[in-house]
Design goal:
The protein is of the alpha/beta class. Strand 12 (213-219) and strand 13 form a beta hairpin. The protein has helices at residues 2-17, 22-29, 33-45, 111-129, 167-172, 184-195, 245-249, 259-271, 274-298, 315-324, 343-361; strands spanning 20-21, 49-52, 66-69, 75-81, 85-92, 97-104, 136-143, 146-147, 153-155, 179-183, 204-209, 213-219, 222-223, 302-306, 333-336. The longest helix has 25 residues, at 274-298. The strands form four sheets. Strands 6-5-4-7-10 form a five-stranded mixed beta sheet. A five-stranded mixed beta sheet has the order 13-12-11-14-15, sandwiched between helices. Helix 8 (259-271) packs across helix 9 (274-298).
């Protein structure tokens, strides 16, 4: 147990603190040089650390050996899938995105065809990037709807036939590693706190404006899912104005209005169209009740507005800022997302990396094979 504690501490110090000499690393983890050297040998055998070429020094004597975390020893795959498209992001073990791919999906396709299309997109993405599927250590998938802890989509009105699909099990057949499934707004919230507009906040509400508007909440620095994954689904109450978001911007197009038409209205509002601005203001007034209700329940430091219909500079964000603030009991910062259409994919990567960390730093770790070179 002590050896595993030392191994976990050394690995974390090497990953988070960057390249180091043996003496530097020993000081970081407060271990003796011989103990640190032994731990490094084990990490090198596991494929998680490597010795780099010494840096030329200005002093006399042999340059000190330097060690680094092998971020390339494995990968995390994030998948963002909905009715119309799939987006993929692959990151190394340090969280750096090294590959991406996107593909269109047939909006009315049944679940089997949709899952097959996702599998095909994964094959293409990995092939383009030259990444062996065996190097994947965890996969996370973001989807609209309520997702149970076991990865079953228990409620979904956006993707045809999606409700009741055990997505973790279906996609899990394609991977030699754990597959996690999470609601898209929840993953967007994780991404905003990791690399977006809420990096400095521990209590965050993410407003994900899409066909309908979903909500994700970070409380005390951790995603809040609720007992069965339905936390934040206040949009189920029609009176809170979070349903049919896209259609509300394009009322003349009916409930089947697409993102293209809605994005056209937002673009026109940015150009100064009075009619488009009025539509955006009406939508913001409608959504403000639901956003404020979530803010009053969570009392967040930051509300981030993202999704296909919002983001940094969106007129919808500006309109919501002016309407939600007065409904809250205390000041709250309202920001547009900085992540564009990658927020769900990045959140999926973060979720997969968290799962990988559990394996890397677990103290009851079983014997494992050497990581692929």
């Amino acid at each position: 147990m002590l050896r595993r504690l030392n191994s976990a501490a050394t690995l974390r110090a090497l990953r988070d603190g960057g390249e180091a000499t043996l003496s530097e690393l020993a000081r970081r983890v407060e271990l003796s040089r011989p103990t640190t050297e032994g731990v490094l040998g084990e990490l090198i055998d596991r494929g998680l650390a490597a010795e780099d070429a010494p840096r030329p020094g200005s002093g006399l004597g042999r340059p000190a050996r330097r060690y680094r975390f092998r971020a390339e020893a494995g990968h995390a795959l994030g998948i963002d899938v909905d009715a119309r498209r799939v987006r993929l992001l692959v990151a190394d073990l340090a969280g750096e995105v090294v590959a991406g791919h996107r593909a269109c999906l047939e909006a009315g396709a049944p679940p089997g065809e949709r899952i097959a299309a996702v599998r095909a997109a994964v094959r293409e993405c990995l092939a383009e990037a030259g990444i062996d599927r065996r190097s994947l250590r965890a996969v996370a998938v973001g989807t609209p709807g309520v997702v149970a802890p076991d990865g079953t989509v228990t409620c979904c009105t956006v993707v045809p036939g999606w409700q009741g699909v055990h997505l973790a099990r279906e996609l899990g057949r394609s991977f030699p590693c754990p597959v996690l499934v999470e609601n898209d707004a929840n993953l967007a919230a994780m991404a905003e706190r990791w690399r977006g507009a809420a990096r400095d906040a521990d209590d965050v509400v993410c407003v994900y404006a899409a066909l309908h508007t979903g909500m994700g909440a970070i409380i005390g620095g951790r995603l809040h899912r609720g007992r069965r994954g339905a936390a934040g689904e206040i949009g189920m109450l029609d009176e809170l104005g979070l349903r049919d978001t896209t259609a509300s911007l394009v009322p003349d197009a009916g409930p089947g209005a697409g993102f293209e038409e809605a994005e056209g209205v937002l673009a026109a509002a940015r150009r100064g169209s009075a009619e488009a601005k009025e539509r955006v203001e009406r939508l913001a007034a409608r959504m403000a009740r639901g956003v404020a209700a979530m803010a009053l329940a969570i009392d967040p430091e930051t509300i981030v507005v993202g999704g296909p219909l919002a983001g940094n500079g969106s007129p919808l964000v500006t309109a919501l800022r002016s309407r939600v603030g007065p409904l809250c009991l205390s000041p709250v910062r309202i920001e547009g997302s900085e992540l564009g259409d990658e927020s769900v994919g990045l959140g999926a990567v973060r979720l997969a990396l968290d799962r990988i960390d559990e394996d890397l730093f677990r103290l009851d770790r079983p014997a494992e094979a050497t990581a692929p070179a």
